[in-house]
Amino acid sequence: MEKEALYYRLGKENLDLLVDRFYDLVFVNDQIAHLFKNDKEEIKGKQRLFLTQFLGGPALYSEKFGHPQMRARHMPHPITETDAIAWLHCMSQAIGSLPVSEALKDELFARFPPTAMFMVNKEEQ
Known about the structure:
Blueprint lengths: L5 H5 L1 H15 L13 H15 L5 H6 L4 H5 L6 H16 L5 H9 L1 H7 L7
Helix pairs in contact: 2-3, 2-6, 6-7, 6-8
């Protein structure tokens, strides 16, 4: 039997909680807060749509904005490996705060490092 998609095992309520907690951390993170210049609620809304799709739920992001093309969409923002690590740290903290099993937290977090590192587009100074 095929395993149910991570989105459905996590649930919409926990996904919403994850996005809220994650951006609460990102917007005060000295390393990466400057990368998030748009309206916080707009950013959170897009992230909810993207994560729904990224985690195996409905393709809400694509329906509204087209193919995610995440690397291309992030190219205007200089992102270093240190920035990606700071982003992952915020995501790890946000995931760690969720009321789900440790196994689900581990599985969820494991989805992010390859994507975060793929966004790196600038050498460290």
